[in-house]
Automatic annotation (TrEMBL):
<dbReference type="GO" id="GO:0042802">
    <property type="term" value="F:identical protein binding"/>
</dbReference>
<comment type="pathway">
    <text>Amino-sugar metabolism; N-acetylneuraminate degradation; D-fructose 6-phosphate from N-acetylneuraminate: step 5/5.</text>
</comment>
<dbReference type="GO" id="GO:0006046">
    <property type="term" value="P:N-acetylglucosamine catabolic process"/>
</dbReference>
<dbReference type="InterPro" id="IPR018321">
    <property type="entry name" value="Glucosamine6P_isomerase_CS"/>
</dbReference>
<dbReference type="Pfam" id="PF01182">
    <property type="entry name" value="Glucosamine_iso"/>
</dbReference>
<dbReference type="GO" id="GO:0019262">
    <property type="term" value="P:N-acetylneuraminate catabolic process"/>
</dbReference>
<dbReference type="GO" id="GO:0004342">
    <property type="term" value="F:glucosamine-6-phosphate deaminase activity"/>
</dbReference>
<dbReference type="InterPro" id="IPR004547">
    <property type="entry name" value="Glucosamine6P_isomerase"/>
</dbReference>
<dbReference type="GO" id="GO:0005737">
    <property type="term" value="C:cytoplasm"/>
</dbReference>
<feature type="active site" description="For ring-opening step">
    <location>
        <position position="143"/>
    </location>
</feature>
<dbReference type="GO" id="GO:0006043">
    <property type="term" value="P:glucosamine catabolic process"/>
</dbReference>
<comment type="similarity">
    <text>Belongs to the glucosamine/galactosamine-6-phosphate isomerase family. NagB subfamily.</text>
</comment>
<keyword id="KW-0378">Hydrolase</keyword>
<dbReference type="InterPro" id="IPR006148">
    <property type="entry name" value="Glc/Gal-6P_isomerase"/>
</dbReference>
<feature type="active site" description="For ring-opening step">
    <location>
        <position position="136"/>
    </location>
</feature>
<dbReference type="GO" id="GO:0005975">
    <property type="term" value="P:carbohydrate metabolic process"/>
</dbReference>
<feature type="active site" description="Proton acceptor; for enolization step">
    <location>
        <position position="67"/>
    </location>
</feature>
Length: 240
């Protein structure tokens, strides 16, 4: 894994945006894997600014998001579809029909999992996957204990994840307890991975990722076995 150390969240966002813009410009029809959560918001803001100032075009880019809450439709302001439209897609020249996020509001969720996996394969797989990391080492919503062989699947969210996500909801009761997520093996099929880590709250996870053993009890540890991972981490996450 290639580790890029930066000062703070702002520098992480700037560096990550430059990394992504370079790929968008050099790879026609880039298949870009995206994440939600607080970590990539600054990066998305930088992509928007660059699109406005330098006219980087996303017209031919196809995106696949990692995950979505079960039970929320795309119109719900807490859904990841709403988040992505709001934080990125509405502000760049991407075709909405080329932006894919697993659906959490369909009746047959098992078939949705299969279809999402097939969709990614049909497009030739993800070229560059953006990831954040949970304090417990989750990637996507693959919580500790998830098999490294998983494809897109339905998960019960860990209590710590529900608590961490509660900041986006009016009350704890509203936080969904299940999600549909790309699996570990789906993520590992990406040709390249960019993992963003910022803040004190990620310090333990950072340490375990770099120095801990590779184990399903710490999902992100699998990234040590991927041939092309870049981590951009800030001082707060790196300090011991
Ligand atoms: C989001 C996702 C999650 C987050 C992780 C970190 O699509 O898949 O794995 O990346 O929970 O979230 P933040 O960035 O809010 O700390």
């Amino acid at each position: 894994m290639n580790l890029i150390k930066v000062k703070d969240y702002a520098e992480m966002s700037q560096k990550a945006a430059e990394f992504i813009i370079d790929k968008v410009r050099s790879t026609p029809g880039l298949k870009l894997g995206l994440a939600t959560g607080g970590t990539p918001v600054g990066t998305y803001q930088k992509l928007i600014e660059d699109h406005q100032n330098n006219k980087t075009s996303y017209h031919d880019v196809v995106t696949f998001n990692l995950d979505e809450y079960i039970g929320l439709s795309g119109e719900n302001k807490n859904s990841y579809r709403f988040f992505m439209n709001n934080k990125l897609f509405n502000h760049i020249d991407i075709e909405k029909s080329n932006t894919f996020i697993p659906r959490g509001d369909v009746e047959d969720i098992i078939s949705e999992c299969r279809k999402y996996e097939e969709l990614i394969s049909k497009h030739g797989g993800v070229d560059l996957q953006i990831l954040g990391i949970g304090g417990n080492g989750h990637i996507g919503f693959n919580e500790p204990g998830t098999s490294f062989d998983t494809k897109t699947h339905v998960v019960n969210l860990a209590d710590s994840t529900i608590q961490a996500n509660a900041r986006f909801f009016n009350s704890m009761e509203e936080v969904p307890t299940q999600a549909i997520t790309m699996g570990i093996s789906s993520i590992m099929k990406s040709k390249e991975i960019l993992l963003l880590i910022s803040g004190e709250g990620k310090r333990e996870a950072m340490k375990q990722l770099l120095h801990g053993k590779i184990s399903e009890e710490f999902p992100a540890s699998v990234l040590n076995t991927h041939p092309a991972v870049t981590i951009i981490a800030d001082q707060a996450a790196l300090a011991d």
